Amino acid sequence: MTLPVTLVQDSGERDVRPNGFDLSESLVPREQILRGGPPKDGIAALSDPVVLTVDQADAMRGDDRVIGVAMGGMARAYPISILNYHEIINDQFGDHAIAVTFCPLCDSAVVVDRDVGSRSIEFGVSGLLFNSNVLMYDRRSSNPSLWSQLDLRAISGPMAGTRLAPVRHELVHWKQWVDRHPQSTVVSIRSADPVRSGSRRDYTVNPYEAYLRRPGLMFPVNPAAMELPASDLKSLVLGVTANGQSGFIAADAFGNRASSRRFQLAGASLVVKFDPVALQFRVTHADPAVSWTHSFRFAWQAFHPTSVALRPSQEELPNR
To answer: Which InterPro entries does its entry note (predicted)?
Structure first.
């Protein structure tokens, strides 16, 4: 049976163990952890996905959005059309155990290293939200912690306070990814049910389309984010952190035109290329201290309330 993923607003009811998770020692106020609608695993995370070569992926369209990861001589694309329904893909990337995660409510793409200390975590979807952002959990643990996608840390349970290491990635169109990585593989919809050639679910339909068209949010978030103009809540930004500080890059930093610009944050540098047609930011160079996240502005502001807009240097770089 296919479970629905349409989210409903929280009823306002509170309990000590929502969806079976112990929040007694939560690092964030318990009343701000809300049920998203589906129960634990009602949105089914994927593990060890089936992949196709570029030549085999004839169902992929050039403008399909993908999260792309390239490291150690490997490249792989994770379609947003699949992540809209599954939110987490646990994968083995060469010697690296990674989780590719996407929260449709925040349009946030985050890739993390699943190896934490001596353990390799297999993430599942808890059915709970904090700041309208997905909370993940360890499916292999009998007493699982809840992990915040955008905060990159466990917020409850025995691993509370433990941080996740981000993995560099891109959020781009399929054609752009393949042009740069022609030997890439791509995750197939067969990952959802390897027994069949596909799933009864229509992955070409975005179940969040109505939400994306509306200016408002479905769930309460940090008041700092709600101070934004309604037109800015779901504007796309590149959230940046470096040396304990945070900022964000918006389209207006590029004059809303295609260009590559250099930005500085806390003594660290990154170069970002902006595509105004696709509304995409691509980091082409970054110092080791820099990490970044693609998301809606409200989501970044909710987790980084003092974050400010970064302005580029006067130098305009070759746009390649």
So the answer is: DUF3179
* Rounded distance between C-alpha atoms, residue 18 and residue 154, angstroms: 16
DSSP letter string, 271-314: EEEEETTTTEEEEEEE-TTEEEEEEEHHHHHHH-TT-EE----S
- Among 138, 196, 140, 178, residue whose Cα is nearest residue 162: 138
The per-residue pLDDT for range 264-298, each reduced to its tens digit, is: 999 999 999 999 999 999 999 999 999 999 999 99
pLDDT per position as a tens digit, 153-178? 999 999 999 999 999 999 999 999 99
Domain boundaries in the chain?
22-156, 222-317
How far is it, in rounded angstroms, from Cα 222 to Cα 245? Answer: 19
In the chain, what is the straight-line distance between the N-terminal and C-terminal CA atoms, in Å? 47
- Written as one letter, the residue type at 304 is H
